[in-house]
Design a protein that fits this description.
By secondary structure, the protein is of the alpha/beta class. Helix 5 links the parallel strand 7 and strand 8 (133-138). Helix 19 packs across helix 20 (493-500). The longest helix has 17 residues, at 226-242. The relative contact order is 0.13.
């Protein structure tokens, strides 16, 4: 089947062979999609029988009979009972890490050092001496509750290889003695200004480094090449495309990541759309971008318009900034400001001046309170500005957060998987009162606020149907707790899907182009084996994604990536 951009390239080839007359002889007949439920996310027409695609965009939507009459020459795609939904916009991801993690030992679910050693030995059966061994996924929240690990077993198992093990959410690192020795870290090494080196009773480091203390070791790890970074990104994007994602917001892009994305976009190697969020904590990077302004792609394949600021830490590691002490082990807390409020305010002022969006990582209630305070002071001087500023996570907030965010028009960018993943220990950290204002998606909507639901991958299960399931059930993948964790904050299927599609598109200023199936928008959609709206809640996570389309072209089918149209264009020039 030839359609969309592929049809244009075919016409170009024919035109060159026939003296340029092909476009006078033939026109793209377009593609008529029909034969199953079509969930549009368009309030004016929530459901449709069919839609017509031409040149990568939806040119008409309505009844099958009407569209067949209007476009008699159209090619046809029969859904055969499958359901079409708008392509998922995963509005907070770390796609490079997703790809990179394929090259690391997977430590998710491991709760003992012996288990970590076993997993590392299986992944690195005969490592070359001196080679860095890497793993990812030990849950700092779970370990903080049971007691952080000690490196003794790692030292015995890998005396000749430095070991670097990233935590699930990136707020702690676990290293062996070889890695600490290479970094010159011992009992006399002071904690950095932001972060903590955990120590044994005798003062020797345990191997666990919190927040920015990780940099003391990480700077000694050989840097990946630009080609490595590009390959990681492509693997990550293709993995996401296969699961039904058609657009991502890459959160916190460092300079090397920015360059890699630029290279991939120029080479036509991006299989899905990317909205870039720059690392706002990197002053040099931000000065460069403030001098040039945003990068906005009319085709929407690669746009850089947002600033991602890391403000506080995480709840699980007790580094999030709370207004009152942690309810459990307050003496073990290390509440963290990774950047000063003054620096955040300066970034916000420059963002307004240069046309950028602000997106601030805020986990704790005081972190969120200060972020909103900064936003309020800046935005009051710019009434009517279509800013679409965001709070990333908005995880634990004060009771007045919801009304303040709604009044400001601030988007709460939240992760359904975090509520479920953190439910094992979150109430211990906060106590029974504060937990009522944590992970509270329904409170956002009831206050009239803007909500985007996303994955923050790769820290938790991230596939879109899992994200939807978490949002609707507030249960783990194995169905715990039976009635959901604080189920009063669960979303309905339609609400969750809207927050995962149109909500994400709005959060990137792209709601006029993607996020719903409507006339004039890009034909980005996913075919599901069944309709989520009529699926029992517990079965949402098991819905299979059959086919994924971007701009009217299939990019993935049955979990496998298809040849990318951008690459085809490049090859055929």
């Amino acid at each position: 089947m030839i359609h969309g951009r592929m049809w244009k390239m075919w016409l170009l080839a024919v035109g060159m062979a026939t003296g340029g007359c092909a476009e006078r002889i033939l026109e793209d007949p377009g593609l008529l999609v029909f034969g199953g439920p079509i969930v549009t996310m368009d309030e004016a027409q929530p459901e449709a029988e069919a839609f017509f695609i031409q040149d990568g965009k939806i040119k008409a939507i309505g009844s099958k009979a009407d569209l067949e009459t209007k476009f008699p020459d159209a090619q046809r795609h029969d859904l055969q009972g499958r359901t079409a939904i708008p392509g998922i916009v995963d509005s907070h991801v770390h796609v490079h890490e997703l790809g990179h993690d394929r090259r690391k030992a997977d430590l998710t679910g491991i709760t003992t050092v012996a288990g970590i050693v076993e997993r590392l030995k299986a992944f690195y059966p005969a490592p070359e001496p001196g080679k860095w061994l890497t793993g990812q996924g030990w849950d700092e929240g779970v370990w903080a509750s049971q007691g952080y690990p000690d490196r003794a077993e790692l030292d015995l198992a890998f005396p000749d290889n430095p070991v670097h093990l990233e935590s699930l959410h990136g707020f702690a690192g676990f290293y062996n003695g070889k890695a600490l020795s290479l970094a010159g870290i011992d009992r006399s090494t002071p904690d950095p200004e932001v972060g903590k080196i955990l120590s044994r009773a005798d003062g020797e480091p345990t191997g666990v480094m919190e927040t920015l203390a990780q940099n003391l070791v990480n700077r000694h790890i050989p840097a990946p090449t630009l080609e490595d970074i590009e390959d990681n990104i492509v693997v990550g994007l293709e993995t996401m495309a296969s699961a039904g994602v058609t657009s991502v917001h890459e959160a916190g892009m460092r300079p090397d990541r920015v360059q890699a994305f630029k290279n991939l976009a120029a080479a036509g190697r991006l299989p899905i759309r990317v909205y870039g969020m720059l690392d706002g904590n990197d002053e040099t990077l931000m000065n460069e971008w403030f001098a040039t302004g945003p990068l906005i792609d009319p085709a929407g394949l690669f746009t850089v318009r947002s600033i991602k600021v890391f403000y506080d830490g995480s709840l699980g590691s007790r580094t999030a900034l709370l207004a009152a002490p942690y309810a459990d082990k307050p003496e073990a807390a290390n509440m963290t400001e990774r950047i000063t409020p003054e620096a955040v305010a300066s970034l916000g002022e420059q963002a307004v001046q240069h046309g950028f969006q602000m997106s601030v990582h805020a986990i704790g209630d005081e972190g969120n309170n200060r972020t909103l305070g900064i936003y309020e002071k800046i935005l009051k001087n710019h009434p009517g500005l279509d800013h679409r500023w965001r709070v990333e996570h908005a995880q634990v907030v004060l009771p007045d957060y919801y009304a303040r965010a709604a009044t400001l028009g601030v988007i709460s960018s939240m992760q359904s998987s975090h509520a479920v993943g953190d439910s094992k220990w979150a109430e211990d950290r906060l106590g029974p009162d504060r937990i009522r204002y944590a992970y509270a998606w329904r409170r956002v909507l009831e206050a009239g606020g803007r909500l985007a639901i996303n994955s923050d991958l790769p820290g938790e299960p991230w596939e879109p149907m899992q994200t939807l399931y978490f949002a609707v059930t507030r249960k783990s993948l194995d169905g715990v707790p039976a009635n959901g964790w604080y189920p009063d904050q669960a979303l309905r299927v339609e609400e969750a899907l809207r927050a995962m599609t149109l909500g994400g598109a709005y959060a990137a200023f792209q709601d006029s182009a993607i996020g719903s199936l409507a006339t004039g928008k890009w034909a980005d959609f996913a075919e599901l084996e069944r309709n989520p709206a009529v699926t029992e809640a517990d079965g949402l996570k098991d819905i299979r994604v059959i086919r994924v389309w971007v701009a009217g072209t299939v990019v993935a089918e049955n979990g496998k990536i298809r040849v990318r149209p951008q690459t085809q264009q490049k090859e055929k020039r």
